[in-house]
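Consortium newsletter contribution from the modelling node. Members have asked for a concrete example of what our holo predictions look like. Here is one, prepared for the adenosine monophosphate complex that several groups have been discussing at recent meetings.
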Amino acid sequence: MSTKKILVIGSGGREHAFCWKLSQSPQHPQLFAAPGNAGTARVASNLPIDGGDFEAVKAAVLLHEIDMVLVGPEAPLVDGIHDYFLNDTALQSVPVIGPQKAAAALEGSKDFAKAFMQRHNIPTAKHATFTGETLEDGKAFLATMTPPYVLKADGLAAGKGVLIIKDRKEAEAALTAMLIDQKFGSASAKVVIEEFLDGVELSCFVLTDGRSGKLLPMAKDYKRIGEGDIGLNTGGMGAVSPVPFVDEAFQQKIMSRIVTPTLEGLQKDSLPYKGFIFIGLINVKGDPYVIEYNVRMGDPETEAVLPRVQSDLVALLEATAKEKLAEETIAISPNAACTVMAVSGGYPEAYEKGIPISGLETVTDAVVFHAGTTEQQGTVVTNGGRVLAVTGVAPTAQEALATAYKQMGKISFDKSYYRTDIGKDIL
Ligand code: AMP
Ligand code: GLY
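And here is the predicted structure:
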């Protein structure tokens, strides 16, 4: 049989983790990343293509005779890359892992996601949606809620579209800024206002072929820039898997109240989905509620989840494409995996790029996943806010964290920063 050629779209730590895992397949696929980073370049051929440029993706798929495309980030999915393939006679036979546009709206529109959850009785915060025309109704709705107020831009806003505000006057002003002054551009033409849920968040991942689904390891992400989870929101500063407070009983609730109705809901609503579903959950006094759906894997969660997956990812993705996932089992390592993210000084606000990174070759025992890196004249340099993720894998989370931090200590670049408290709150 000829070598399989797989194209991974994206350029972050998640995509390096995908390439790393795919490269371990006994099927020895030939891998491509578009555009990738200095890490993906070690196991794949980087193609200088933006995943949002479908014509360029098409040209690359035809040129390199790609057999399967795995889409990392949400934007191309929300913009319909899967549909683009299905509607093109030259690309139709190339499976895309990631939902079609209609289903990707679960991440692309918070209002759509809330309506989906309501329709299928999936536990989530109570909400209402408003537009510029119904601004006054929105303010009246705020008056009926207890603070803090949660305001969400309906569309994609690069992780910045959720505001949590204590004061009602401030919340009214923010609502006006979103709906009338387009604070988040067209993404905030609609705003979801919802009840604040108090609890600990966790990330649940499901791989589905549109018929059945398989649960992947769960993880907990650390979103804020500062120690103790304070300060500005980031893409994620670290992750641990498994999540210690998810016991048998809680996992059963997640399955029966959330995962199963979500998969059934996709079928009932004829939403075509072949790919990863990331369900952002919150544990409110032992009951799981959905905070959000993402139509992709999480980052940095993928860097902690995939090292625990023992099964061949190529086989799992092929089964997904062929709607034969029910025949597969996903073997999960009992080991824990903990990921610490090193970021550029200043992130998530302004930061520099192009800073040389040293010590990468001295890392032992841990896996280094590149996020914002590139290679310049043979040197790996920073190329983004989140620069690299170091994952330790060990029988206990404590040991995995100790390994990740020890190895992280060997890597350095000017103005680098990482949180030293990943996992501390739950271990
Ligand atoms: P989202 O983009 O919907 O994941 O929201 C971003 C972050 O805002 C989440 O990770 C939560 O920390 C927080 N958040 C969103 N919705 C709620 C809610 N209803 N109650 C409490 N926190 C929330
Ligand atoms: N780590 C959260 C996300 O990927 O959205």
